[in-house]
Amino acid sequence: MNVLPRARRRTWVASGLTGVLTAGVVFALVAGPSVVVATAAHADEVTSSAVTVTAKDQDPTGYQDAPFPDLAVTVSQTKGLIAQGITVSWTGGLRSTEPTAGNGGANFLQVFQCWGDDPGSPRTPRPDRTTCQYGGALTAGGMRDSTRQIPYSDIPLQDQPYSVPGRGIFPPYTSIPFVARDKTVVSSIDTAADGTKQVNATSVNTNQFFTKYTTNEVPWAGSSADGAGSISFEVQTAAQSPGLGCGNAVTEAGTTVGASCWLVILPRGTADNGSTAITDSGLFWDSWRHALAVRLGFQPIDARCPEGAAERQLAGSELVALAVTSWQPVVCNQQGGSVYALLTLPESDALATANRADSAAPMALTSRSLPSDAGPDRLSYAPVALTALTIAFGIDRAPSPFGHVDDKYRARARQPFTSLNLTPRLVAKLLTDSYKRAIPTGADLAYLGKNPEVITSDPDFLAVNDPEWASQLYQTPALADVISPQGRSDAAWALWSYVLADPEAVAFLNGEPDPWGMRVNPWYSTSAAVNAGGTALTLPREDFPRADPVEVRPEGQAPINLVAWRPYANDLDSVSGLVLRGDGLTLGQWDPTKQPPGYSKTGRTTAGYHALIGVSDFAASSRYQVMTASLRNPAGAFVAVSEKSLTAAASAMTGAGAGGAVLAFDSSSAEARRAADAYPLALPVYAAASPRLTDSVLRKSYADFIRYAAGVGQRRGPDVGQLPDGYAPLPQAWVDQARVAAQAIEDGATALATPVATSTASSVATPLRAATAVSATGDSGQPSVAPAPVPSATGAASAALAGAKTPDDPGPGALAAAVPGSLLAGAGGAVAVPLISRLRRRVL
Predict the structure, then answer these.
(1) Which of 46, 418, 621, 770 has the fewest CB atoms within 10 Å distance of its CB?
(2) Same domain, 446 and 565
């Protein structure tokens, strides 16, 4: 999947309906029984489409000659796939040797996607090697072509159609062409009418269908000393790889389905294809004949809403985007149903627009209420999702070559870490570029004193994590900070609030050293006396600033500032995609041949060499199956994100705005300090609309969306219309609040509402407190509240969405003039500045 950030500038009309319709919606990202789970969220779930294949079953006549005769591979999900991550784990391998510049390594696996069936194997379907996305990584032993170390006569018959005999001192050459789904052929060998062949200048490894920046192939996946291993693999659809075309809508037996593809797991030993080492292509026959393959089924990626359905505009939080995507195909196909197109932008902007009753305003999706300085709050707030912010990480073990390292740690080299603990102070260090490698190479680092290079060498980090971390050696900038999304968001506000609730983190931000002597980067200090700019950094805030003005000016090259050195990701979803890919957005070399000249971008790292951390969300982390950090909560416990820990956090949330209608997990509250099982970055998402909207049909449509989202849409599961991974079902009291808010919106400003209020229970053992629904009753904006019913067990209300179709869709109101915040993060290393806003349509 090509998840590199790219500039986006779209109006409502240009966005069309693609924001919530292009991706399919079902994703059960769950590990099978023998799979290393990616996040705590998957520990209690089962994916029925998990498949295990073995060398013996798939190669019954030749498995004993295969590199690993006992190889067994489990793929965590094989049906209902979208652009996402899946877990590939295995046993029965041999301890791997890492690749070098001219050698692919030894005893490892290669993993990649193919789209076509081998016509020579009709009874036992297998993939056609010419249809595989392979070679783009440009690694030794991982390309589609090479010269051979054997005479042409010794080349297997299966490879000879793709081979050219040697001439003089030149050896034979074999090149496996790539045939795209649309039948376009990329070949580096031309065949004349008389059958003679000659090599042309075409590259079969870098072409219009895949390059090292876009390919999802894993050219080296290593096994530990016990022969086992696990990786997260990026599944690509036609949206990311048109050449593969996976998920393109096709008709089978009168039903529209997504075109299937293959996942190939190719074992590589110590030498093959006539070579003395792993240097030749795995697509050459001697290697290819031992490939294991699993059929992958995809959701169709085309829009599935009826033509002519009215479009209803939603604006704001990205956190609920994947849930909306799941609900959409159901709600739009109900009788009279509408298309709810989500445009993600700063929630505060969305609220300000929704609060204007003089236009057909979009319904806002938010985790906070309208700011007090924005005037009277005339919105009704309906809970529609319970999710969380996450710190996603992909860090593979890299034992230090220096000093003594325990043999048991060396035996796990290049295997992924599956757990990581963070405190608020450690998060503060990552957000403030206080580790030295967060600053461009060549800069004077005197102002950072003796601060560690990266977080994994920080004694503060080592004190709260497994002792194995102390034996690792990392130097990448991607472990000196977090990849963060551009623009403004409630998510940023929540993360800064989590940091500020901790006295140790506050002291660090004020300029006090931690117990080991590390100090905050002075450009980020919240103390004016300490801040290098003389002005205290204002926190909390809705963005992740690059406050340090450091700039390095290499001779003959463009200057490098923090944004060029450590660019932003496009959004939270992109961050998890980058973590899955092992793409730390690190700056590449200066390329004077570019037009105009600029910096290249370092490509993704291969499996076994990932080392990066990013700010993401629970839904995206679940979608891409990446690891997430356990965070120290106010009760002092390190808690991983999960449905259970979100529910515990919900029970400790307190009123945070709109007269108590909007709740938040306040880490400084007494309730939070008693919630030992709570994940501290849990976030509710509210649908907010004004009962003062003059269009009664639009009000009813918004009310119907709320009823579905808070009702049937809360049923957990992988099916269309259900609540996907990355969300916890709403507490019953929240469902009750949503119903009241929906009715208030539908009835309009002149109707009498019956809102509910938050209970004041103070014990952690108390049932989930009820949130409140607010309906404005006057220009003063003062809400009217009444006691809520006693909450009961979480349940899903049964409500069919039947929003009436409006002949003329409402205009975008004030949002028509809004312009997306944009930042090209990575490609070319362009110098940019932090953005104050982001406006984008969700494309999944």
Answers:
(1) 46
(2) yes
Quote the DSSP letter at residue 116: -
Encoded tokens for 465: 């994590």
Residue with tokens 């005893």: 107
Query: Do 588 and 451 share a domain, yes or no?
Result: yes
Nearest to 391 by CA among 645, 562, 572: 572
Give me the domain span that covers residue 64. Answer: 47-146+180-186+206-298
Per DSSP, helices labelled H in 680-830 are: 696-710, 732-747
Single residue among 631, 648, 677 that ends a domain in this structure: 631
Burial class (CB in 10 A: 0-12, 13-18, 19+), 593: exposed
Question: 490 and 368 in contact (C-beta within 8 Å)?
Answer: yes
Q: What is the pTM of this model?
A: 0.82
With 60 as the cut, is the pLDDT of residue 623 above it?
A: yes
Give dist(CA 296, CA 488) in Å, integer: 37
Question: b/e for 54-75, b at 16 or more Cβ within 10 A?
Answer: bbeebbeeebeebbbbebbbbb
Residues 262 and 405 in one domain: no
Structure tokens at 408: 């048991």
pLDDT tens per residue across span 746-786: 999 765 344 433 333 332 222 232 333 333 333 333 333 23
- Listed in sequence order, the residues at least 6 apart from 76 whose beta carbon sits closer than 8 Å to its beta carbon are 29, 30, 31, 32, 35, 47, 50, 86, 87, 88, 89, 625
For residues 825 and 566, give the distance between their C-alpha atoms in angstroms, rounded to a whole number.
Answer: 8
User: Residue 545 falls within a domain, yes or no?
Assistant: yes
Could you say which of 585, 612, 631 is where a domain stops?
Answer: 631
Domain co-membership, 407 together with 544: yes
Within a domain: 455: yes
Distance of alpha carbon 844 from alpha carbon 574, whole angstroms: 10
Nearest-angstrom CA–CA distance, 721 and 330: 5
Q: Quote the number of domains for the chain.
A: 2
Residue bearing tokens 């973590």: 579
- Is the residue at 676 inside a domain? no
In this structure, the strands spanning 249-252 and 255-268 are antiparallel
What is the per-residue pLDDT across 532-549, written as a single tens digit (0 to 9) for each? 999 999 999 999 999 999
- According to DSSP H, which parts of 467-571 are helical? 490-500, 503-509, 562-565
Amino acid in position 830: A
* Residue appearing with tokens 């490892």: 108
CATH number for the domain harbouring residue 277: 2.60.40.230
From CA 804, how far away is CA 801, in angstroms rounded?
9
Residue whose C-alpha is closest to residue 481's, from 507, 499, 455, 504: 455
Q: Which of 218, 217, 230, 295 is nearest to 91 (CA)?
A: 230
Measuring CA to CA, how many Å separate 498 from each of 367, 493, 634?
A: 15, 9, 9
> Is residue 478 one of the residues assigned to a domain?
yes
CA neighbor of 584 nearest in space, from 344, 398, 392: 392
Q: How far apart are CA 506 and CA 587, in angstroms?
A: 32
Separation CA 553–CA 783 (nearest Å): 56
Q: No. of H helices and E strands in the chain?
A: 18, 33
